[in-house]
Write a structure and sequence with these properties.
By secondary structure, the protein is of the alpha/beta class. The protein is built from 15 helices and twelve strands. The protein is globular, with a radius of gyration of 20 Å. About 0% of the residues have low confidence. GO terms for molecular function: nucleotide binding; oxidoreductase activity, acting on the CH-NH2 group of donors, NAD or NADP as acceptor. Belongs to the Glu/Leu/Phe/Val dehydrogenases family. Keywords: NAD, Nucleotide-binding, Oxidoreductase. It holds the Pfam family ELFV_dehydrog.
Length: about 350
Amino acid sequence: MGVFDHSDGSEAAHEQVVFCQDRHTGLRAIIGIYSTALGPALGGTRFYPYATEEDALSDVLRLSRAMAYKNALAGLDLGGGKAVIWGDPARLKSEALLRAYGRFIQSLNGRYYTACDVGTYVPDMDLVARETRFVTGRSPEHGGAGDSSLLTAWGVFQGMRAAAEHAWGNPTLAGRRVGIAGLGKVGKYLAGHLIEDGARLVATDVSEAARDWARHAHPEIELVADTDALITADLDVYAPCALGGALDDDTVSALRARIVCGGANNQLAHPGVEKLLEERGILYAPDYVVNAGGVIQVADEIEGFNFDRAKLRATGIFDTTRRILELAAQESVPPAAAADRLAERRMSEVGRLRSLHLR
């Protein structure tokens, strides 16, 4: 199946899809640029052992489109893009491969800025940056923003506060029971914010190391066996903070929480899940709205990173989430639909200015 007739019609509007290969290093990468209406496309690089090339292509198309919407609602003058490197990072990742990948990014002449994602880390971006200047998420030693999960978690916390205000009239999680699925970098920092706010936490993670961290750092966290046990627990808020597709028909049917708000990308397993959440009276804070703190952090690096400035911008996720939830209620649509409308409006209205001729 080709890019132009991809099965999901919403993903067929990409401006550019680039296939990159370097046989000597084993590099096989796909860069998807969904839109540059607001500016150069920005999105991370995912290094993952996809089962097939079709799976890799589907992921990059889906993720790059989501980045366009995320960047638009974050108020950034940046378009949406994403890249995937097809392969097992534990086996294939090398300095030569990452630098070869950087050469391909440089060849796009600034149409795409990359950053970290699943399977890639700050030291990897430092290597990519040796071949291209169109990279963010570098280490502070190299003038970068460092670990973007810091402000990702902060933004999710702000979105959760806005959802709490909408549901219960008070922008705090104090006394609420919050379930976190995934205690990786984002989930770990989110847990700290919630504990400081007075929430009661229940959590799970497939990693024994992550569970050990919780036992030692926050023994007050109640650990459960798996995600199934978490979604059926008596929760006020469910926070998916692992991989995407966390919300499908079965999950939503079993979920007992009043709010869903987490750091994972692409939480809705398929179109229509947002309507199931609405029918069950579950308030969904759209993932690409609340987890935009990370992209705000790495985007700030482009103009010379300042953490306090980036954190202030990420704090604005509270107001953005509140606005989306209010619009959804006014127009009687799910919050995901309201978020899409606002993002599309900004891409259209601000992007239109690019058509004005400047000498």
